[in-house]
Amino acid sequence: MAANDSILDPWRADALPANVRVGANTVIGGTYAFKRFRSKRELALVIGSHCTLDGTHFAVGEEGRVEIGDFCYLTNVVLLCEEALQIGNYVVIGWNATIADTDFHPLGAAERIADAVACSPLGKGQARPAILRRPVIIEDDVWIGPNATILKGVRIGAGAFVEAGALVTRDVPPGVRVVGNPAQVLEEGGSR
Amino acid sequence: MSAARTLAWDWYPGTIPENVVVDETAYVETTFSFALYRSRQPRGVVIGRGASTYLGTMFDAGPNARIRIGDYALIHGARLICDAEIEIGDYALISWNVVLMDTYRVPLNVAERRKELERVAQRRPRMFDGDVAAKPIRIGRNVWIGFDVCVLPGVTIGEGAVVGARSVVMEDVPAYAVVAGNPAQTIRMLERPGEAAP
């Protein structure tokens, strides 16, 4: 990986995981950015140029892959990725928003017991049951407010406006404003 | 408050900014709350008598921000995103991870937002310039706001109202209403106190 002089303290280029690629003039801040970054993909995190990722938390599982475009601005965002998160260009995501492409645990009761055991200190080496996961795609020019939550399999269309605190469980069409839990279209004209 | 405007009990090596007025009986847990503070108003933040702001409270205040925290108000970790005015009344109780935002910070129009994102990438520090129209937030006296609540630009919450946890408040809340939900709706009304608190 080429050295990258754009990274500010504490994540200098030499402190970044080897499978992370960061574009020019992109800044990553925050002590906990890569504390839970466990991806073994050859290229697990690709961030474009001119981005500001302040306090963003990359909790990326072994098979996870995150792509972020250019000119994005993320403030203390929690990215939970087991498969794929794709974030376009000019995307703004507000403080304490959460984006997850996984259910974390199986839905079925018996499978959840098996998962609890596999995750426990006594379950070393045991395989976990299958867990639902589906990529999240956030297209260009999307705005996501503080405390919002985006769940697995969601595609947020270009220019959409996700209100603060919204919980998004379904696709959002381009250019609309969604609010609420579950998030619903409030009015046309998110992009205006 | 010592002359150096540091806090004896602070873990963060910061200071209370000069244009912040903290009553001598108020408690500010940490100056980290001012790490994003950049108000240039004569009194950017005023913290009243017996008020307290705990860890997690962030004064994310732009150049024109004015924030007033009333007497005996208790802020247990709210993020105040302020480019105009946020007023928190006396005796207000505000829980953790609450967002009080009087602005969306970036233009709603996509083309203008792109320009602002291109400008911010060249700034040090990388802060939005507060040029977007902000609408003041007013939290009345004796209001209680539960955890993870968002209060959106322009909202007024009337005296004595209660906002349930995780609510998103998009419209004004009447005095002594209990609201909950996302978006928040009135679910009941409280009895008004016979006499004002001392």
Detailed description of the structure:
The complex is a heterodimer of chains A (about 190) and B (about 200). With about 190 residues, chain A is mainly beta. Chain A is built from 1 helix and 19 strands. In chain A, the strands form 3 sheets. Chain A has an 8-stranded mixed β-sheet, with no helix packed on it. In chain A, strand 18 and strand 19 form a beta hairpin. The radius of gyration of chain A is 17 Å and the shape is globular. Chain A starts with 19 loop residues before the first strand and ends with a strand. By secondary structure, chain B is mainly beta. Helix content of chain B is about 5%, strand content about 30%. Chain B has one helix at about 110-120, and strands spanning about 20, 25-30, 45, 50-55, 60, 65-70, 75, 80, 85-90, 95, 100, 135-140, 145, 150, 155, 160-165, 170, 175-180, 185-190. Chain B has an 8-stranded mixed β-sheet with strand order 2-4-7-10-13-16-18-19, with no helix packed on it. In chain B, a hairpin with a 4-residue loop joins strand 18 and strand 19 (about 185-190). The radius of gyration of chain B is 17 Å and the shape is globular. Classes of the chains: A mainly beta (about 190), B mainly beta (about 200).
